[in-house]
Structure formats: C-alpha cells, structure tokens
Design brief:
This is GTPase HflX. With 421 residues, this protein is of the alpha/beta class. It has 17 helices and ten strands. The protein has helices spanning 3-14, 33-49, 73-86, 99-109, 116-127, 131-145, 151-161, 171-204, 222-230, 272-277, 279-286, 302-315, 339-344, 347-352, 358-368, 384-402, 406-409, and strands spanning 20-27, 53-61, 90-93, 112-115, 210-216, 247-253, 256-262, 290-296, 323-328, 374-375. The strands form two sheets. Strands 6-7-5-8-9-10 form a six-stranded mixed sheet, sandwiched between helices. The protein has a four-stranded parallel sheet with strand order 2-1-3-4, sandwiched between helices. The protein binds guanosine-5'-triphosphate and magnesium ion.
C-alpha cells in the first residue's frame, strides 16, 4: 500500500460518522396528526441543520407532558429500546423540557437529550459570525443551560472547552461548572453592553435615511432577495437560520437611497432567552420605517408561518409598521389553473396538486393593507421589478416625510451613512 493510500485509508477510518437522532413529540388535544407531522418535519430540518440525521419519530397523544418523563412510561420504554437497538446518538424533544425532566431522561436514555430551545441555541451558536451575535447566543445558551447542567452536558461543555473529564463528570464537577458558567454570564453581559453601545451610536448615525427591514420565517428567501437587491455577497442556504447576524446595505431605487437590512428568521416557539439577548439585533426591525415580510408560498404551512411572524412582530411592538407582503418561491408553488386548464386535467392530477389561488390571496391581503402584495421568485428573478416598484413608492413616501423639500433639494450627500454593519 502506498503512503498516499495509507493516508487516505486512515482519513476514511477516522472520519466522524454523521450522528443519528430520534425525534419525540406529543399530540395535544387541539392538534391533528398532520399538524404534528409538519412540526416534526421542521424539527428534523433543525436537527439536520445541526449536522445530525433524524432516523425515527415517536409521537404520543397526551394532553399534558408527564412532569417526570415528558412521555408516558410505556412510550419511554419503547424509545429506550429503539435507541439501544439502533445505537442512536441523541434524542430531540419538540417542546422544552424542565431541568428535572432533562436529568431524568438523560439518566434513563443515556444519550444526549435535546429540547427544542437547546437545539435552536446550538444552531445559532454554530452560525453566528459577528462578535455581537456570538456573544448574544453564548449568553442565551449559558442562561438556558445553567439550571439544566447534567453530567452529560458538563462532560460535553468541558470537551468543547478543551478540558477533559476522565470517566464522566461527578456532582463536584457540575458544581464547579455552574460557578464557572455564572462567572461567564456576568462577563458576557458586560461584553454585550459594550458592543451594544457602539451599535446605538452606529444606528444614530443613520438617522435621516429611510430604513427597511426584511422579516419572515426562517428559510423563506430573505437573504436571496437581499442579495438580488444589493448584489452583495450574502449567504443564502437551504438550512434553517442561515442568517443569524443582521446585515445592512445601502440601496438606491429611483434615485432615493435607503438602508435595507436582512434579519434573523423567526420560528415557532423561539426560545425566550434568545429573543431577550437578540434584542439589539432585532432593533433593526423595531427601528425600521418599512417592513418587507417575505413568505415561502411553496411551504405547506405558509399561513401558519405568517401568523408566527405577525405574532412575534406584535410582541416586539412592530406589528403596525407599513408592511409589504412578498410571496416568494412562486416557481415552486402550483398556481391555481384557469377553468379551461382545469377541464383538460385528469381528476387525479387535480387531486394530487395542492393549488394556491394567487388571486384570492392577493385580494385577501390587499384588504388587510393599503400596500399591494407581490408574488415573486427571488431565485429565478421573476417579477422582481414589480417588487422594486412597490418598494420604491413606499420608500419615497417615507423619504418625503423626512425631507419634505427633497424634490427641490435634489442631491443629498448620503456618503456619511455606513453601508455595512
Ligand atoms: N425555488 C426557489 N428557491 C428559493 C427562492 N428563494 C430562495 N430560495 C432558496 O431557499 C433557501 C433559503 O433561502 P435564504 O435566502 O437563505 O432564506 P432566509 O429567509 O434568508 O433564511 P434564514 O436566514 O435561514 O432565515 C435557499 O436554498 C434558497 O436558494 C425562490 O424564489 N425559489
Ligand atoms: Mg438568511
């Protein structure tokens, strides 16, 4: 065997195998199996974003989670047997677990136990780029982990930090780690305060220019649209939470300049700690004059996603800003065929396709807001001009409020505004 192939063999042998995960959800009284199955699709996607593969799903119809073990004892035995047989690496619960549930489940199942919040926090940790986002996530994660610190997590955290715990962590190590974490939380809070101060100054320097924020559920195409509008090099990926940091760029439409910001996507049950520590990132939304609410129209649950976004915006106090509804990914959605087209289709074809009535949707959203909704494909560039037109008109309206004499003054010096965050 040559030196090269020996090296290659070693590489293959030591390559880490993809971790496997088992997903668990309850079906509550008001929920249908389909609804929970959709939630589990999302949980599988989140698990995948973290780098693990979901290999099985367990559901149980139950009103309230068991206070000790989340699922019932019979179900727990079933999960345990599956994990042992298939040698799964982690188990992910679609709801949040109490500190004691987490401890009990970890003792019973003997693998990494994730709940929804911890999963999202770990994804954010992996994706954060800027010092601010990193500090925010780290703070939120430590705050969440502190009361939940178990043997397993102490062990994993120490691995992450490069200190090993030989033969597993004991109660003493857990106590030491808790003290360390408390100290880290204090330091992170101080660090964040400093960064936020700079942010406030930076945002103040942008006074006098219209600000537009892109909002929406995660993975709907906000960054793709941002890229299209600014030709900037922005990461857009088929992963949940590709964007965790907000990016701000200057755009000029119809000679009117404005700032456009791409923001972190929303999701059902976003951990409260995360919202709390992302406040300054979310300030881009709070301080915006106009919101662009991007929707993935090809997603089967797009209406639920709109509701989650609206609810989050309301909670932030940004629910009544002028909003342009942008229905994206029209290339993937099946448009309602005309009567003639319908006649030519077979019954099976009609039943199989889940058509979306764009016109009905347009009418219903036109009723809710004065701004006409738009249907685009950011990926294919379809109908982007329509979006540009509507956005330019809205920006102009706001711009005239700031500079009533703008048309007479003509050229303004906008070079002072920073283009990059
Ligand atoms: N087919 C199709 N795919 C699209 C369209 N717009 C975006 N995508 C894809 O959807 C995925 C998500 O796009 P992003 O732009 O990263 O979405 P995002 O809203 O910024 O997502 P987060 O930052 O994770 O919240 C990527 O794989 C894009 O290529 C579209 O109009 N049509
Ligand atoms: Mg993005």
């Amino acid at each position: 065997m040559s030196k090269y192939s020996r090296k290659l063999k070693k590489l293959i042998e030591t390559a880490p195998e993809q971790e496997t995960a088992v997903l668990v959800a309850l079906i509550h009284q008001h929920e249908t199996e389909e609804m929970v199955s959709e939630h589990l699709d999302e949980l599988a996607f989140l698990t995948e974003t973290l780098g693990a593969k979901a290999i099985h799903r367990f559901t149980q119809r139950m009103e309230k989670p068991d206070p000790r073990t989340f699922v019932g004892s019979g179900k727990l035995e079933e999960i345990k047997a599956y994990i042992e047989y298939f040698d799964a690496d982690m188990v992910v619960f679609d709801e949040d677990l109490s500190p004691s549930q987490m401890k009990i489940l970890e003792n019973e199942l003997k693998i990494k136990v994730y709940d929804r919040s911890l999963l999202i926090l770990d994804i954010f940790l992996k994706r954060a780029q800027t010092a601010q986002a990193k500090t925010q996530v780290e703070l939120a994660r430590f705050q969440y982990l502190l009361p939940r610190l178990t043997r397993m997590w102490t062990h994993l955290e120490r691995q992450r930090g490069g200190t090993s715990t030989r033969g597993g962590a004991g109660e003493k190590e857990i106590e030491t780690d808790k003290r360390d974490i408390r100290q880290k939380i204090t330091l992170l809070k101080e660090k964040l305060q400093k960064i936020e101060k700079q942010g406030i100054t930076q945002r103040k320097s942008r006074k006098g220019i219209v600000r537009v924020a892109m909002v929406g559920y995660t993975n709907v195409g906000k960054s793709t649209l941002m890229k299209l509008m600014t030709k900037a090099d922005i990461l857009a990926e088929n992963k949940l939470f590709a964007t965790v940091d907000s990016t701000v760029r200057k755009v000029v439409l119809d000679q009117v300049p404005f700032l456009l910001s791409d923001t972190v996507g929303f999701i059902r049950k976003l951990p409260t700690h995360l919202i709390e520590s992302f406040k300054s990132t979310l300030a881009e939304i709070e301080e915006a004059d106009i919101l662009v609410h991007v929707v993935d129209i090809s997603h089967p649950a797009f209406e639920d996603q709109i509701a989650v976004v609206n609810q989050t915006l309301n909670e932030m106090g940004a629910g009544d800003k002028p909003t342009i509804m942008v229905f994206n990914k029209t290339d993937l959605a099946a448009k309602m065929p005309s009567e003639e087209e319908l006649m030519l289709m077979s019954e099976i074809e009609v039943e199989d396709a889940s058509f979306i009535d764009f016109e009905k949707l347009e009418r219903s959203y036109a009723k809710k807001s004065e701004i006409t909704p738009v249907f685009i494909s950011a990926e294919k560039g379809t109908d982007i001009d329509k979006f540009r037109e509507i956005l330019a008109a809205e920006v102009k309206k706001c711009h005239l409020k700031i500079y009533p004499h703008y048309l007479e003054d003509e050229v303004l010096d906008f070079s002072q505004f920073s283009e990059k965050n």
